[in-house]
From TrEMBL:
Organism per entry: Oryzias sinensis (Chinese medaka)
GO cellular component, one term: cytoplasm
InterPro entries to which the protein is assigned, alphabetical: Glomulin/ALF4, YAP-bd/ALF4/Glomulin
Protein name: Glomulin, FKBP associated protein a
Pfam families per the UniProt record, alphabetical: Kinetochor_Ybp2
Gene Ontology terms for molecular function: ubiquitin-protein transferase inhibitor activity
């Protein structure tokens, strides 16, 4: 019955120009066609859709058959799977890209966490083909697609152990690789447009780069700030590490310099005309993620100039460390400690002057460190916090230590922390008594108060 209805409505449309298709024609085509797919009439449906006389009808209405077709392809249980795949391919080649995009995204967005990985695996390449068919005016559609894809990717559990990443237990590694392949031609287009832009195309190119930048920033703050990357010494081949490198390379493709992003909190950026306000264009969490990838994992190191002094790098990274350590989420706390430690180890002991304590973050970060050491439920993070806290103390000169100790004793309200600071004070007094007094004596400062 459904097959007969479908054949009849298609034959009826053969004799009509597209301008005379009515809502009833569309509804009949959709209802009968979907019923045919659900009833398994793959050979007949494929024959009707491939008929040369029906191509105008398929071009106009074929995209409405996507929902049941995609569900069959996801289940992978039907013995006629190659036939259904052939129908899917023909619709992708024949239907209009805008309607196809709507149909594909609707199916992607309806995925639950259990089917999100398979939906991405099935739909990413078709979505890429459809977007490339849109030509130069695809920026907004690309932005909508990337947002939907990331929303699905974020649903997937992240690997917590080396073994989970190696076996790709949750398929997130495969999805990241496929997402990198999906977005690659759009980054290439943006890169080419930077070197050969004309005033006529300037607006369209800026819009494309704006959408790609939003994608990079969302990926940095919603995925890469949550996942634990493993270095080459722990995992030789890491899909997640490779994906993070692709995102950093993508930033360069849209005209962003990594050092400008990392140092953004303390550098006055040139106003960039475009579609995004500063806070939207450069979210603080995304910039902190860039800093962590560059300084801790040394990704895209060839794109980062080596002329900046360790003190200047610390000064800039303190903003990112403060943001990360202000979180209550373990992944962000861990990344904050790692970034702070990596920024400190490049400094000589006793090299940080007291003047730095006039900068807000050089006092607020120690406060956050105290909270990590005393309130964090994870023992390994508390231990790491204590280690990094002591490392930070060692990097200040004598006067800075004195002022920092005063501040922490006044604000910590924790007996264990106060005891630890007093122990450090005793150590500094002992050191001061062993060496010739300089311009600032720790012991003299204490006795004068």
């Amino acid at each position: 019955m459904a097959l007969e209805r479908f054949s009849n409505v298609v034959q009826l449309c053969q004799a009509l120009p597209e301008s005379r298709y009515t809502a009833e024609h569309h509804d009949s085509f959709t209802a009968a066609g979907r019923a045919c797919i659900q009833e398994g009439h793959c050979n007949d449906v494929l024959s009707i859709l491939l008929d040369e006389k029906n191509q105008d009808t398929v071009s106009c209405m074929g995209w409405t058959l996507l929902p049941p077709l995609i569900q069959l392809l996801l289940k992978k249980e039907d013995q006629n799977l190659p036939r259904w795949a052939a129908i899917f391919t023909h619709l992708l080649e024949t239907c209009r890209p805008k309607e196809l995009l709507i149909g594909l995204l609707e199916q992607l967005e309806h995925s639950d966490p259990h089917t999100a990985a398979e939906s991405l695996h099935l739909l990413l390449k078709p979505l890429q083909k459809v977007l490339l068919r849109l030509g130069s005016r695809k920026a907004s559609s690309l932005g909508m697609t990337l947002s939907s894809v990331l929303d699905q990717l974020i649903k997937l559990p992240l690997p917590l152990t080396k073994e989970q990443e190696e076996t790709d237990e949750f398929s997130v590694c495969r999805c990241c690789i496929e997402l990198a392949d999906f977005v690659r031609p759009f980054f290439q287009e943006a890169r080419q447009s930077l070197s050969s832009r004309s005033d006529r195309d300037c607006g369209l190119e800026d819009e494309l780069r704006a959408e790609l930048l939003k994608f990079c920033m969302k990926t940095l703050s919603h995925l890469l700030l949550e996942v634990q990357l493993r270095g080459p010494d722990e995992l030789t081949e890491s899909a997640l590490r490779t994906f993070a490198t692709h995102i950093l390379d993508g930033l360069a493709s849209v005209g962003e310099h990594l050092h400008s992003l990392v140092f953004q909190p303390v550098l006055k950026r040139k106003q960039v005309p475009g579609f995004l306000e500063e806070e939207v264009r450069y979210p603080k969490a995304s910039l902190a993620s860039v800093a962590h990838l560059v300084f801790v994992h040394h990704l895209a190191a060839d794109r980062f100039p080596s002329i900046f002094s360790p003190v200047f790098c610390l000064r800039c990274n303190m903003e990112h460390v403060f943001l990360l350590l202000s979180s209550t989420e373990d992944p962000k706390l861990q990344k904050g400690l790692e970034l702070y430690e990596e920024s400190l180890v490049r400094l000589e002991d006793g090299s940080l002057p007291a003047d730095l304590l006039q900068i807000r973050t050089f006092l607020t970060v120690p406060q956050n460190m105290v909270k990590v050491m005393t309130l964090c439920p994870r023992h390994d993070l508390r231990t790491k916090g204590l280690k990094v806290f002591q490392l930070s103390i060692e990097k200040f000169d004598t006067e800075a230590k004195y002022r920092l100790f005063q501040y922490i004793l006044r604000t910590s309200n924790h007996s264990g922390v106060e005891g630890y600071i007093i122990k450090n004070i005793r150590t500094q007094i002992h050191v001061a008594l062993q060496v010739r007094p300089r311009s600032f004596s720790f012991s003299a400062a204490l006795t004068s108060n």
